[in-house]
Amino acid sequence: MNGFNEKDGILHADNVPLPQIAEAVGTPCYVYAESVIREQYERLAGAMTKALPSDRQPLLCYACKANSNIAVLSFLRSLGCGLEIVSEGELMRGLKAGFDADKIVSTGVGKQKNEIAACLDAGIHQFNVESLPELEMINTAATETGKTANVVFRLNPDVSGGGHDKISTGRKRDKFGMGVENVMKAFAMARDMDHVNALGLSMHIGSQVFTVESFKEAFEKLPALVHGLRESGHTISRLDIGGGFPIIYKDEKLLDLDSYADWVRDIILPLDTEIIMEPGRYLVGGSGVLLTEVLYVKETQDRSFLVVDAAMSDLIRPTLYEAWHSIDAVKNRSASPQTYDVVGPICESSDIFATQRSLPEMNQGDLAAIRTAGAYGFSMASTYNSRPLPAEVLVSGDKFSIIRKRQALEGVMDGETIPDWLK
Ligand SMILES: Cc1ncc(COP(=O)(O)O)c(C=O)c1O
Question: Which domains are assigned to the chain?
């Protein structure tokens, strides 16, 4: 069975009972099911295969900020993905996971010179450039290293997409991309640069984009711009149309991928370029749970709290985005329902996974699975309150493997020293 399902009254990841993982690895830990990642990849790639000719299939560059564990990256590489990175660390992870550098695209508003140099050294596919000074920095780094950088310019289409204010990236007021005027300037500047090859445009309007109309509205900004640039003698051979495909956390209505793919076919395909996409959350979000143990059932005059051993430091989405995550009891799943606030041990009132949630009655030592935690979960984890980073486990059918050991307590203080004058 694929994904997280009940078998013999116990929640499993594929065919592995979650209590077996908790026993072997401890809690809190992230558990990812390969089968779900494969299904999601096949869904997205399948929609594109259906809509576009075989020789015009997009390069799916997985946005590894969503989940950058090198085992997860290796699996996505084996499925055929390229990679979207935002730092030298992500570049290093990608190379370690065996990605061909020519399938890696570098994005982000604050690329540093050393990061640009590392990407040039590796020979990545392209830089998605977000500002004019960044273009100058790329040219400088490329000149110094004797390389030529392939670049595309990120258009800010002034379109609102994204399921939350903090994950919308395509509005004029957002820090991302450039308006049309600066894109034109960037092409003109690049023409005079010896170490930059300007090849096209990119865009990414946000995350959890539910309405296909938002994508369509953004895509529709491209044809006139592409034609205008070509008329001015610029090469437009690549269009990177970003990520943002949504998943279900609660009861959201999913984007119709086929309609999305049809808009790619109708608007992007005729522009006759290589097509790149940057899916992140869609590929991995549903593949993971954060497995946690109930430390205490705390009754107050007001309510019942389940104090669990996972915290906002392990999964910050509820705190940061008011995100809703489904929570499942791992055993005794048909016990009588109770209403709980599910909270972590951190000294912040915002360390809450769920408020007034109905769950089967739970007791100290019981396990709970916080679902849909495969994206922007571990990758956003911190050591706040000096809590070690949780372990990560990958499940494949009947087997599982620890793909990241729980951080050792000493590791939380790694690199810290007491100056001589305090000794
Ligand atoms: C440039 C870029 N591409 C792709 C993504 C992936 O977005 P999602 O996980 O919603 O697909 C992001 C997310 O922040 C991004 O900033």
Answer: 4-33+285-413 (2.40.37.10), 34-282 (3.20.20.10)
Show the ligand 1 pocket: residues with CB < 6 angstroms.
63, 65-66, 84, 107, 204, 207, 242-245, 278-282
Pairing label, strands 238-240, 274-277: parallel
With vertex at residue 374, the alpha carbon angle to CA 378 and CA 96, rounded to the nearest 5 degrees, is 65
The pair phi, psi for residue 244, each rounded to 5°, is: 105, 5
Q: Which atom of ligand 1 is nearest to the CA of 376?
A: 9
Q: Distance from the CA of 201 to the center of ligand 1, in angstroms? A: 16
Amino acid at 235: T
Active site annotation includes 347: yes
Pairing of strands 288-299, 29-33: antiparallel
CB 394 within 8 A of CB 74: no
**For the segment 237-282, what is each residue's pLDDT rounded down to a tens digit?**
999 999 999 999 999 988 899 999 999 999 999 999 999 999 999 9
Q: Which two tokens stand for residue 375?
A: 């994206």
Contacts of 309 (CB under 8 A, 6+ apart): 27, 28, 292, 293, 295, 344, 345
Judge contact between 342 and 293, C-beta under 8 A.
no
CA of 137 to the centre of ligand 1 (A): 23
Hunting for tokens 């899916």 — which residue is that? 279
Task: Name the residue of 154, 204, 245 whose CB sits within 8 Å of the most ligand 1 atoms, as the mutation to test its pocket.
Answer: 204
Q: What is the pLDDT of residues 85-117, one digit of tens each?
A: 999 999 999 999 999 999 999 999 999 999 999
For the entire predicted model, the pTM comes to 0.96
Ligand 1 center to residue 175 CA distance, Å?
Answer: 14
How many angstroms separate the CA atoms of 24 and 9, rounded? 20
